[in-house]
């Protein structure tokens, strides 16, 4: 049985308007899975999560939690939040300020018919999981942001909810602490094995934590797959752009001749599929980190695809990495490479090379698979 099933969910904040914050979303989350919702601001991540929690009511579709329907738009069914058995951690930690850490973590248990000893044992166990036993008697005001976030996590996990909903729980923390807590959260997820939905707009966080990643845009799911799937084969040009692929070349028509005249002139063999399925709009995306810069005269390593020669216009040094800006007859190509591999000087003639599989081809916005 799936832990969570969402079927054709539609949420409009203004019932009279056609604007859909969640627009026909269907997905399932398997037991023990951490599904990450990734997407730009305003794409509907929080809304979707709040619908699952019962904090917002959708208009259409169904939400089924461990086989039990908790929302059904067609039948007007909407089970309230406290009957959904859900744990939540949000961006603002929302701990009870007047309660100690121990009392905060115990709070969700006190509503249940458990003995005092059982409750205390569970609190102890949860504080150990988040490595905060030593903070048990403090009040939230005496904790750092990262500690508060860990207590919020312990509190949400304490009652062993069917599903954990985490909405950007790390975004209020400084960069270093984020990285640390991300690893910690990953370890807790492995150890406790909870089922979760995790919202973020940070792709590294998504790839680190997600068993699967759903990329959202305008209330819809653009792509749902493993982190590697999403990263290596962005399903649409929108996903490719959202993931930060900066080299995009419009091919205009799908006529292979147009490619021959474009920046990837030379090797057309990888575009067999394109030639076979003509359409009105084709684009090539190449991740800047997938490219390497070679001096113009140097021979191209076997198996690599070479782009035409160009002129380096600028090199942006960023420590261990740098960005080469290369002019390819009017198109700017960006190559991000390890500084250890060298840096060219502006004005020099170079060629960029990549593996053929790193060239992503989109036809009418959809990835053409080779
Ligand atoms: N209470 C509300 N009333 C009306 N519109 C809302 C409300 N909350 C959100 N929206 C709108 O719904 C859409 C989705 O918002 P949502 O908060 O779900 O986005 P998000 O993906 O979580 O964004 P962010 O990354 O900024 O948190 C947005 O267009 C937003 O303006
Ligand atoms: Mg949000």
Features:
370 residues; alpha+beta; OB fold (Dihydrolipoamide Acetyltransferase, E2P); 2 domains; 6-stranded antiparallel sheet; 10 helices; 21 strands; globular; binds magnesium ion
| Average pLDDT for all residues | 88
What CATH architecture of the largest domain would you give? 3-Layer(aba) Sandwich
Please state how the strands of the largest beta sheet are arranged side by side.
7-8-9-3-10-11
Tell me the number of helical segments per DSSP (H or I, 4 or more residues long). Answer: 10
- Portion of residues within helices: 25-40%
Q: Could you say which small molecules are bound to this protein? A: adenosine-5'-triphosphate, magnesium ion
Number of separate domains = 2
How would a crystallographer describe the biggest sheet? 6 strands, mixed
Beta strand %? 25-35%
Q: Rg from C-alpha positions?
A: 25 Å
CATH class of the largest domain: Alpha Beta
- Structural class category: alpha+beta
Assembly annotation: single chain
Q: How far is the N terminus from the C terminus?
A: 35 Å
User: So, the CATH homologous superfamily of the largest domain?
Assistant: P-loop containing nucleotide triphosphate hydrolases
Number of strands: 21
What form results from the Cα inertia axes? globular
Low-confidence stretches: none
Instruction: Using the coordinates shown, work out and report the CATH topology of the largest domain.
Output: Rossmann fold
């Amino acid at each position: 049985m799936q832990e969570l099933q969402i079927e054709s969910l539609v949420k409009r904040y203004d019932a009279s308007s056609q604007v859909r914050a969640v627009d026909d979303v269907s997905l399932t989350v398997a037991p023990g899975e951490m599904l990450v919702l990734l997407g730009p601001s305003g794409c509907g991540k929080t809304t979707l999560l709040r619908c699952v929690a019962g904090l917002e009511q959708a208009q259409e579709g169904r939400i089924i939690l461990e086989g039990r329907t908790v929302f059904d738009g067609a039948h007007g069914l909407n089970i309230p939040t406290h009957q959904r058995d859900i744990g939540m951690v949000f961006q603002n930690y929302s701990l009870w300020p007047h309660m100690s850490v121990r009392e905060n973590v115990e709070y969700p248990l006190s509503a249940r018919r458990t003995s005092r000893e059982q409750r205390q044992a569970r609190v102890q166990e949860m504080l150990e999981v988040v490595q905060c036993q030593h903070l048990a008697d403090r009040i939230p005001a005496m904790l750092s942001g990262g500690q508060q976030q860990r207590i919020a996590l312990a509190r949400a996990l304490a009652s062993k909810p069917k599903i954990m909903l985490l909405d950007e729980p790390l975004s209020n923390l400084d960069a270093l602490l984020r990285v640390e807590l991300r690893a910690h959260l990953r370890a807790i997820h492995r150890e406790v094995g909870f089922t979760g939905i995790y919202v973020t707009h940070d792709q590294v966080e998504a790839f680190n934590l997600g068993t699967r990643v759903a990329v959202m845009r305008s209330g819809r799911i653009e792509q749902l797959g493993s982190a590697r799937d999403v990263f290596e084969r962005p399903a649409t040009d929108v996903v490719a752009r959202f993931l930060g692929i900066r080299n995009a070349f419009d091919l205009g028509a799908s006529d292979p001749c147009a490619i021959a005249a474009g920046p990837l002139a030379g090797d057309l063999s990888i575009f067999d599929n394109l030639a076979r399925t003509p359409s009105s709009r084709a684009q090539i995306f190449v991740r800047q980190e997938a490219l390497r810069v070679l001096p113009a005269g140097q021979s191209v390593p076997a198996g690599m695809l070479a782009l035409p020669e160009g002129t380096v216009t600028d090199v942006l040094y960023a420590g261990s990495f740098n960005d080469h800006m290369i002019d390819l007859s009017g198109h700017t190509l960006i190559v991000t490479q390890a500084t250890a591999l060298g840096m060219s000087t502006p004005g020099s003639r170079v060629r960029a090379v990549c593996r053929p599989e790193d060239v992503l081809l989109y036809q009418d916005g959809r990835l053409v698979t080779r």
